[in-house]
Amino acid sequence: MEHLWIYAAVFAAFVQSLRFMLQKQVKEAGLSTAAATFARFVYAAPVVGLGAFFYSSAQIGGVPALAPGYWGYVVVGGLSQILGTVAVVILFSHRNFAVGMTFKKTEVMLTVLSGYLILGDSVSVYGIAAIALGFCGVLALSGQAARFTWRDLISRASLIGLASGVIFSISGPAYRGASLAVMSDDPLIRASITLACATAFQTVVLLGWMLWREQDQLRAVFVRWRLTGMVAVASMLGSMGWFTAYTLQSAAYVNAVGQVELIFSMIISYFVFSERSTPREYAGIALICASVLALILFG
User: Fold this and answer.
1) Which of 154, 168, 187, 212 is positioned for an S-S bond with 247, CB 3.0–4.6 A?
2) How many domains in the chain?
3) How far is Cα 195 from Cα 243, in angstroms, rounded to an integer?
4) What is the pLDDT of residue 167?
């Protein structure tokens, strides 16, 4: 159980890299940003809900009680995850797949602060040093020029990436707060109940938006059910991994280990999209991988 959160985070990172690949293909197939985001929730919601109910019933004979403040955490986490996902999907049109994922990873550094402000979670000195090493890797990936300039930080792509990092840094601690508010000692019950509630909330929010503004895109999500359904499966599996890890460990550590997603993203970027990274980008990714390893060993 001590290292379960690490396995859960690595699994979630792997599945998430597949999910973003599928979402990119969904967007390239003509679906809007909102539709590509909606696709990850709509099919998963009923499956996750039923799974959480039956697992909880089998383990403790019913659904556990929820502590005060639970739904506040779910709403904050759900909305921030929607907005963060939208920002990442928009980002795909500005940078290649692997580097787009790296811009999103600014959330790791920012989660140290948001986790402390929301839940009072703290990070050790060694953990902060490891996360700072990863931040150096993000800076190395922030520009297209041979040498880094401050102008790179204010490009549209960089600002969108940083915005997604800020937004996602809120969702992790919020979901951890929700999981801890489920009155059960079983981490899988806590994770599955919270995931079911969050997914249902996000489905309702996005459904309302699409009925209001993008009815044609709403139909397209179901017409292209084979592709959008795969997005939902990847999202469901990845989210279960994240929520389990958040239940067992602070969001800052979980997100830091989750940066191994970059390795998976590079592999996908190379073999699926035939995209190539520059030596500078490889150096930045190497720094981030070193950060993850240091965090596991010394954090």
Assistant:
1) 187
2) 1
3) 7
4) 92
